[in-house]
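Blackboard transcription, Thursday session:
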Amino acid sequence: MIPKHKIKKAILLIAAVIATLFLSLGTGHCVPEYAYDRVDQKAEREKYLAKLADDNRKVDLAIQSTKTLIDLSKGRPYLAELHLRLAELTIEKSRIVYFLRKKQVSDNLDALKQLESKQLKLRAIEIYQFIIDDFPEFKYRDKALFFMAHEYRELGMLDDMLKNYRAIIKQHKDSRYVPECYLLVADYFNNQGDLSLAKRHYTAVLNYPRSPAVTIARYKLAWCHINEKGFKDAIKLFEKCVLSQTTDDLDIDTYKRVDIKLEALIDIAYCYPESYKDTRPEKAIAYFKDFAWSRAVYTTVLEKLAYRYYIKKRWRHAAVVYRELSELQSDARKLLAYARNTFECVQNLGSFADADKDMAHIIKALKIQKFSVHVADKEKKQNQTDYELYARNIVTRLHENARKKQSAQSFKRAADGYAQYLDFFDDSPVYQAMSVNYAEALFSSGQYFKAGRQYEELAHRQAPNAKPDKKLLYSAVISYYKALKQKSELSYYQTAYTRDGLRTTGTQYVSLYPDADQVAHVRFNVAWIAYDEGDYDRAISEFSDYVRRYPAGEATEAAIHLTLNAYHRKEDFKGLVAFGNRILQQSPIKKKKFRAEVAQIVGASESKIINSLTVAAVNDWDQGRSDLKAFAEKNQQTQLGEQALNALLISGKERQEIETVYTTAKQLIEQYPKSDKLEATMGIMIEAMVQIGQFRLLADHLEKYVHKFPQNKNSADFLLQAGQIRNMLAHPKRANKNYESYLNSSLKKGRSRDAIVFSMATNAESMGNPNEAIQLLKRHRKHLSAAGKIRADAAVADLYLADGDAKKAARYRKQAYGAYSPKIAAQDNAMRAAVARMVFNALDRNYQQYMQMKLGKKIDNAVVQSKSRLLKKLEQGYHEVIQFQSPKWALAACHQAFKINFEFAEFLKNAPLPKLSSQEKKQYQTLVAKKVQSYRDKAEQYRSACVTRAHKWQACDPTLAVYLFNDSGTAGNLKQSRPFSTSSRTAAIAEHFLKVAPLRTLHAKLMRTPDDTQILLMLAQAYMDAHDFKHAALIAKKIIEITKPENKKIRASAYNLLGLAYLFDKNDPAAKDAFQMALSLVPQHTGAQLNLAGLLNHYGYRQSAKHIYQTLSQAQIEKETDASIHPYARKLYYENSQLAKK
Amino acid sequence: MKAYIIICWVVIFIGCATTQPVLRHNQTDTTNNVVHKSHPADRADFDRGYAAYEKRKFARAGLYFFRYLNKHTPDDADYEWAQFFFGICLKRTGFSHASVDMLSDLVTRKPNPKIVSYSLELLEEVTRTLPFDRDKIIFQVLSDQSYGFVDQHLSDFINYHQGVFDWRHGFIEWGNIHFNAIQTGTYYFNRYRYHQARYHVYKGEIQAAITILASLLTQSMGESALRDDVRQTLARLYYETGKFEIADQLYREIETPIIDQVHHLLERAWVHYRMGQPQTAMGYLYAFRAPAFQNFFTPEYYILKSFIYKSVCHYEKALQVIQEFDRHYGTALTAIHTRADIKNNPTLLRVIFNQEHIRSVWEFLALLEKEHQQVASIADPEMRAYMDRIYTLQIEKTKSDFRKSVQNAYEEMADNLLRYEEESHLVAYEIGLDMVQRVQQYHYREQNNNAASRDRDRVIVYPFQGEFWSHELDDYQVTLVDKCQCAEEWDVFFK
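(Written on the board underneath:)
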């Protein structure tokens, strides 16, 4: 275990080590990475002198050893080379000595101090000359000559130099020094001003294309051309220089440190403005860009070019190049210099087309300076002052030019310039004025958004509580307004900003300067902005206010239109209509066209109100219907009310809701009789009534329709249908009126008139107007068919007879007879019946005469004979009637024949006895009794025939019962049989159908499924329950009509219902026919069986009834619904079955 | 953080007034023409300074160098060295901007090559590690000057920035010369390649860009931030070319901590949405709602979310998202419509402050403010005044730039927001349209499908439990029952 104190010591030791480490770090044991490289100039100089002295010693040693070697090498082939080496070492020593002397005397070297150096050079020349003289075969003679010439040049011995170079050119044509010799000779002549010789020698260099001197020669030659103003030739040569591959092989020191490519390019810049005077500056820039090999070179050469243009006063060119330079540089001082020159160019040009760019460059430079700590405040201030003036001058000039030109583009440039100016020179003494100018330039250049922003800012740039400037505020309003007029040019943000800007500035203007001339315009614009941004409530409020304030204002029409539009956009058509109507009533604007427009908009909107209500009703019918009703109620007798009802009607129709359709259509027809929708409404009503099977109302509305639209193509049909319904509903007068109108209508179709005319006649007759019937028949006779004419004549004859005009009756009877033929009669029961009736009634006078012909107290042969003749005549007449095969009249004739024979039997029986003996009397009485019996038998035969025929026909006509049930056999006082139904309560349910729940429900269903026969059956039954039997019959007929023949069960049920309806309506014959029809379709139809059996039973055809009863079971009857069986028929069945049980 | 930003913002906008201190350094008074001549005695400050520098007493060294500089002119032999060491001392004592300012000024005056190299080395380090004044270093120092005598690393640094400058000004070939001079495989070479790829994207040469970026990823870059930038750009390009799987894979490979790559979440959500994986996309959007990401919220979030809901026929929810958009941006939109001051629109400000370019300026401003506060601790009044001047000027400039940037960003953001508002209305309309169409399709669809199996198919994933840890994010999905196959209550309206 380690003792505690040892641990403590160890920790302390470690801590001490760490502390030492830290201390060593802090006390410079860890030297920073960047060390000072101290430069001691004196030491450096001494160091350099020491080095030169050392070099001098070394070169002396080399010279000495070379000399020793030369001495030892006499006659050796390399001796010349050793001399050449000696010359070079001498030259080296000359150089060292020169620098040594120079450094020793602090760089100021006089001629005396140079003496040693020169002497050494001359010594070198001697050595070269010795080589040339003593070693004619030396292969480096050219080199010796070349170096010697160089030394001559250094010593200023130019003639000797020239001599040597020429010697090389002449004597050593293949020497590598030839091109350089040409170059140096050319330089000599160039320096002498002999351009011709200089050019010749420079040109000679070009013959040595591989020589490194070529590029220099070209360059120099180019300058010769320049001196002779041959700029184009110079440029070509410079271009070649730039494109040449430079090497460092040149033996001429002068040129070794020269970047000839760069120099050439720079010198092109010198020539370019001279050579290409008409070239655009942009092309020049592109030219130099092509030749430059880096951005640094490019900027250097452009600087030269710009300056060249500048001093040549090619202002535009200089400015363009300076601008390009400014784009590429970030040196503030350079930028300011460029800016200054550019400004001068621009001033001289008088054009400020690029003032915005110039401004940007000035500000770019000033900004760098402004935030730099390395530029003196005074310089900054001075520059800012100077350049503020430049900048101000530039931009105001530009603005001035723009005003002169009125060019949006120029104004835009001016605005851009102002923007930059204001952004930087925020402490400018003319800041406010420049700000206003900026706003104006923005406005004039069409930059309305920015203009508005600037004007608004300016308007508020006052003392804290001062009123915003009126003119500026108005300018802001106008700017914003115009900006919004070109909304496509605005971004989303700008649009939102502009809207609020216009609203804010406009509202302020109106509130601060309520009496200003432009207030109306401003109010309009403020309202318009609300409209533009879709705040229609606000737009409406503000435009309405505008219209109220300026009823005859310049923009009032527009305000009204926009208000209407705002309502329209909101889909507040109610509001629109109210506003439009108010305008139409109150507006002082009397322009017809305008008012017509407003009226048209109002009209169209009214429709839309209803549409919206209708749409709402589609979504929530109950609420929507109530709303529409309430709306119609509220707007009664107005177009809106009418449209609301119409919408309600259409919706009701769409939703197949009969109650709505009926009540609404009724309301529409009653409240808006002049509506242009009346015809359609009535059409809907008719259609609905057809659909639901409400024939009473159907007839009503058919008649109303025809009354309103007599010329409608449907009117004739409607009249006919109405007439027929009326006929069936036993409304003879109205039926006849409809028929009459139909017959008089020019629109009626070509169907036969017979049925109509005879219905009318029957109706007239039934109403107790035989004359009317006569007139009708006579009036329409010519349009009747052949059979119809006979029938009409017969009827007229009959009617005249009834009226006591026997003469006329005879005439028509004769006419009827004349036309009658069995062939025609065979097809026309009604005609036969009419003729039969005519004949039958024509006999009536004789019949009455016959029946009244009585004997007195004694036999009067004349009376007997007369009666006997009449009997014969009547009997013949009745026989004739029977021949017409009209059941009713046949029965009647048969019955009359019975009566006249029975009468004659009674006449004979009751005849006074003649004065005879008792025997004779007895014989006479026996004889008479026989005779009486024979007439009675004959009578009985007629009666029996009648009953037989009636049984055969099973005639169930109470009017015929008199012919059937007179069992007494006596003539006269015959009881009329009662019809099957005894109840006398009938009802005519028309519009009350809505109040009777079952009817309302069934009709509602039918509205949706008009051909649903089950519902129709139920409806017919419901009408019977309501005691409207005639209507029930009509519905039953409809069922029969619309049900396909193969659907026998339905048709049978319909017939049964029809029969029942007839029964209840006391039309037993028709009922019997209906029941029979039902059974012909479905023989097992329990209802029809029971009803028919009851009817037959009622009319005494008990066997037939019994026969039917026997086929029915109790279960069947109980199963059958009550509705299909007449109560009395059911009762009769039970009575019969109880009897049968007994 | 939010409150801090807003307070700073208000400070920035309310006032920038500062007093102008007396500044002697470098003021060449041409009127008085005071020329400081060197004298051996004057070197004392330099020597003391350098001695302190060697002992790493940078604050003291800085003061001596400052004094030396104040007494001398650039003509003095050691003036440049003094300036250089002063710059280093400033950096070492936490005044990075003042250091940059000093060294930048020095470099542009082309001192001896050693000083230039040293200074550029320091500037290069700053550009990689700290917020800095781009105008000064990139434009004034690097792009505006030629340096032909520096070592390879600095040469790469200079060539890269000069190449970028040339390219930006349309000097493609000259730029290429610079770029080609950069040593392969180095930091700046990779940056150049990345820049080259982006240039291809700019020219619409997407495939070329993809090739470069993909090859970059195969190389060792060392710098994970650049690698992530490459991944992100490549992912975006693959997204644009419809290669969503690869894009997703690249997003997954991004190494930046999840909290710092919030902008990727939205992009990844788009990727998955386009891949037909609305559930996963929705997962990313849910993660986006984490409180830490609130400041990155963009309107696009809502549009995408509504698209996703729409794609699985969650029409009501899709419409709710639109309403959510209205709720979230309602105040911001009102502020825009009523032209409220920017500072009164914190919703947008939060988003704007997280935009990269704004944030970089903001970070620089924060650095300036922090360093400016340190100025007060400088004991020497002259040096304090001088330093104060440096920072005051720079803060003024940066604030001005910042205000403009924020104003522009605000207008751009507001414009976007208004556009999104309109788009949200369109989306709502489209949702309505889709509802009608879907109901029609539904009712005409064959009815003989097995309802039970359909129901089973509709549940795409199992419910998410509510937590979202960053490492789970990639697998984070949200249950979205595909309702396109079933009728909803509102279908009644369309029957």
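Lecturer's comment: The radius of gyration of chain A is 70 Å.
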